[in-house]
Amino acid sequence: xxxxxxxxxxxNQTSGSPEKTGxxxxxxxxxxxxxxxxxxxxxxxLNVLLAGRDTTAGVLSNLWFELAKQPAIFHRLRQEITRxxxxxxxxxxxxxxxxxxxYCLNEALRLYPSVPVNVRLALRDTHLPTGGGPxxxxxxxxxxxxxxxxxxxxxxxREDLYGxxxxxxRPERWESLRTxxxxxxxxxxxxxxxxxxxxxxxxxxxxxxxLQEFKDIESRD
Length: 221
Known about the structure:
Layout: H1 2-12, H2 18-21, H3 27-34, H4 38-51, H5 54-69, H6 71-85, H7 92-96, H8 99-111, E1 117-121, E2 126-132, E3 138-142, E4 147-151, H9 152-155, H10 159-162, H11 196-213
Antiparallel strand pairs: 1-4, 2-3
Helix pairs in contact: 1-4, 5-8, 5-11
């Protein structure tokens, strides 16, 4: 199925870019600007579609699970969307400007990260800057071949980082919260999730459209 779409896109590709022709941004058309290798195009397209399916669905499920339990948050979020969009389909820029929506998504990703545990294999003897010694502040030696695992889920619920209510869904904390390596729903560094903005945009759009259609939500937990 994807091979047919890729083949058709290559045939229909013109010399002008989407920006020059005035057409909308199309992911596959942009990929063809970089390569016309059908296999590479198929692999990249499938990677975006499949890698972002279950993870984004999980974020949405957990967000709406919390919204159903807390009507005040649900209605505040709906009021923001109604006020800012007036029933219109949101653009990318409008989605980015919905602050309370961003807070709600951040909070859902904090409590329920899509990748709750991650691991790394030491390719050579190395030292971590902290984690060793009685107080955990000394360097920690990691021999070659050893696996280091860490729990984003546990870190996101630490009271010393997020306060005594760290286990509670409270989007308002993001009004003043400033995070760095203590918030890693998409991992970080050179191998940060490539689909971060894609996932956030998709989750934001779906949430907005649902809130524009439904005035109330009922928890049956």
